[in-house]
Amino acid sequence: MNINDIQSTGSKATREGFGQGFLEVGRQNPNIVGLTADLLGSLQMQHFKKEFPERFFQVGIAEANMMGIAAGLATAGKIPFTGTFANFSTGRVYDQIRQSIAYSHKNVKICASHAGLTLGEDGATHQILEDIGMMRMLPGMVVINPCDYNQTKAATIAIAKHYGPVYLRFGRPSWPIFTPEDQEFKIGKAQVLATGTDLSIFACGHMVWIAVEAAKELHAQGISCEVINIHTIKPLDEKAILASVKKTRAVVVAEEHQINGGLGDAIAHVLTQNLPAPMEYVAVKDSFGESGKPLELLDKYGLSKKDILWAAKDVLDRKK
Amino acid sequence: MADIARLKELSAQMRRDIIRMVYNCKSGHPGGSLGCVEFFAALYGNVLKHTPNRFKMEGNNQDMFFLSNGHISPVWYSVLARTGYFAVQELATFRKLNSRLQGHPTTHEGLPGVRMASGSLGQGISVAIGAALAKKMDGDKRWVFCLTGDGELDEGQNWEAIMFGAHHKVDNLIVVVDWNGQQIDGSTEDVMDLGNLPAKWKAFGWDVLKLENGNDVEAVIAMLRRAKRRCGKGKPVVILMKTEMGHGVDFMAGTHEWHGKPPNDEQFERAMAQLTETSLGDF
């Protein structure tokens, strides 16, 4: 798998992939139901609602209640998908998720859009950068952050078939599509996008595409990068991570999340126990975001291609 | 009337169970538990359609119950054991290591009868609504019941759920409020005044019933049956049930002091002296 073979075939928002996937699973399984807290269109749940109005519930701006209702629906055998922004899907309702969903092991799919800085102009009140950390701390919670439209659609279909609580994180902006249509999504299985020998770049969500772009530039400089999409942050594919780092002994992790608690920490945890190696985080450095355009924000907060290139240079120097 | 005599005996035994359980582990919540004995005896002993020895999480074609104020677990565990969900002897494990009878109810240890963890307050009505919606979707004609504390109504999530229940016409749901007027730090009036509680529920669009004596098992049965008849008419039903916290043990009655503390040796003896033995026998 050569890095230059990875090409964008178009651009769509990951949340649109969720909306299409949700419609598809709705057609496959009559037990699937939807709920939203006044964000039907933002979550692209209108397709499902139009086709299955009797299986969709408008909860109003009441996320705590939505999580509880979802837990009750799941208790009685339904498979509820809740839809609101990532901020309101996690921090606002952490205790409801903790007690009624995670601890009670309910088959609820927490579907969260507008995650991270790329939410853009709405600013830091809405740009949650702690959600992966909060969700991966909960015992039994599956945490997924797919990289593009196609993969978000596939992940939505996959989580419907998985029994247990899931946090599915995706975003607002239109974003390059570069993974295949109708791909099979395997929860917990890392996706090796390009093989290489000098450096491992692990990324999730929107940052996977930026990692690919950075790896192309590194490739042109004669540096062989392994690019691995860790779309499932929990359970983490430790085997794939260790196999890659065993080869490269140099690691960069890129995520649209705080430096604390996210994918980088999850990988560092595996490496410190098994295979210590030079590692750099490309993540938000313990700060809140602000209003701006998605790419401007990624640039200002250290999540751009050049930040990955710097991080790569740093770990490669330390490896010597 | 034979049934009422049986339920009175069940209630008497549940009171003994509660005091013995919290004394046994030197922790737990006797006050609210004692106050809700008649409610649980009426619900599980008479009103619910359920199959205790074949408990299924989904509860299809059965009545379902959710306890929102999970701290009154002693009374719930007692009635579950006494109606056949699990062995009565297991009550001796309450709050001890490796027990299914956790301090607050959980599904995690697989205790039959429990469908949702509760303890962090204010979540039960939402959960009960979810189960009630599922029943409606499935064409299941049975009812969903939920007990919540009155102090617990301080939590905002309740009012989100109450608004939802009316808006979505969840009319197969019966919420019962344990209206004992007490919470941990004092009376509800002093801590956070609930104001005109019936008017509040009514304004939120619920069918409101008031039960003046929630410690009379016959009255509770009559009220629960009345609530069932009021269902199916486009409104969820709430029973505002007056109870006495600590009912049945004189020094625990009517005060918040016994919300969450066990009796010492002397208090235990005094309490047990007031709770006569029954033919059901202690655990």
* Fold-level CATH name of chain B: Rossmann fold
Identify the quaternary structure here: heterodimer
Uncertain parts of chain B: none
**Integer tally of domains of chain A:** 2
Helical residue percent band of chain B: 25-40%
Explain what the structure shows:
The complex is a heterodimer of chains A (320) and B (283). Chain A has 320 residues and is α/β, with parallel strands linked by helices. Chain A is built from twelve helices and 14 strands. Chain A has two domains: 10-177, Thiamin diphosphate (ThDP)-binding fold, Pyr/PP domains (Rossmann fold, 3-Layer(aba) Sandwich); 188-319, Rossmann fold. Chain A has helices at residues 14-28, 46-51, 63-75, 86-89, 94-103, 131-136, 149-161, 207-220, 238-248, 263-274, 294-300, 305-319; strands at 10-13, 32-36, 56-58, 79-85, 109-113, 142-144, 166-169, 174-177, 191-194, 199-203, 225-229, 232-234, 251-258, 279-284. In chain A, the strands form three sheets. A seven-stranded mixed β-sheet of chain A has the order 3-2-4-5-7-6-12, sandwiched between helices. In chain A, strands 9-11-10-13-14 form a five-stranded mixed β-sheet, sandwiched between helices. A two-stranded antiparallel ribbon of chain A has the order 1-8. In chain A, helix 8 packs across helix 12 (305-319). The model of chain A has no long low-confidence stretch (mean pLDDT 98). Chain B has a five-stranded parallel β-sheet, with helices on both faces. Chain B is globular and about 50 Å long. Chain B is of the alpha/beta class and 283 residues long. Chain B has one domain (2-274): Thiamin diphosphate (ThDP)-binding fold, Pyr/PP domains (Rossmann fold). Chain B is built from ten helices and seven strands.
